[in-house]
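Quick sanity check, DUF3307 domain-containing protein:
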Amino acid sequence: MILIKLLLAHLIGDFFLQPQSWVKEKEKKKLKSPKLYFHVFIHIAALALLLWDVSLWPIIIIIGVSHFIIDALKLSFQKKKTKRKLFFLDQFLHILIILGCYFFSFHSVNKFHFRITENQLALITCILFLSIPASIIMKNIFLKWDISELTKNNQSLKDAGKYIGILERVLVFIFIIVDHWEAVGFLITAKSVFRFGDLKESKTRQLTEYILIGTLISFGIAIITGIIYTVLT
């Protein structure tokens, strides 16, 4: 239960309560940006609210301070070519700190019991992860390619791809946890049918590969998250 709360606080602080404007300002001003310190404060506040136990303040401080150090180092060394790699390294280190704090400290701590059950909290965490965080992860994966060159002279609804991705990942996750894998296959087939026209009309092999890679990554993230949830619960 405590580990899920720690992960949930990280998702909320790093993805849901960090606007893109903050990210851009931090990248521009680096350690001089007030948004960096607001960001760390939000993480500490989210941890405090979710854990709701004064005796856990050392863990909250450790995670908060380590988050600041990791983000500060990332901003200091980040360049355009290294942005994608440092994003994943940054997230890996944050999760590693959280896991370390849990396994080395929480085994002897009395847990505060919320009315919400562990399974419900795990479900909320998984669904939140499959929305904006998964979209940001995929966005960083695709920094390797220049999508503007692939979609030249072709218009699309603003943020349509992001919302389609969120919906498909949540649907796949729900299908898996209710043990209806055949529905996942149906969803993949339906998306392939809708995408067939775009792929057929596209003269660019790179765009076709881009779409296929994106679809497989999106479904893969949702499937793995669903499996992890069913195993843990």
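Posting the structure with no commentary besides this: Residues 109-114 have pLDDT under 50 and may be disordered.
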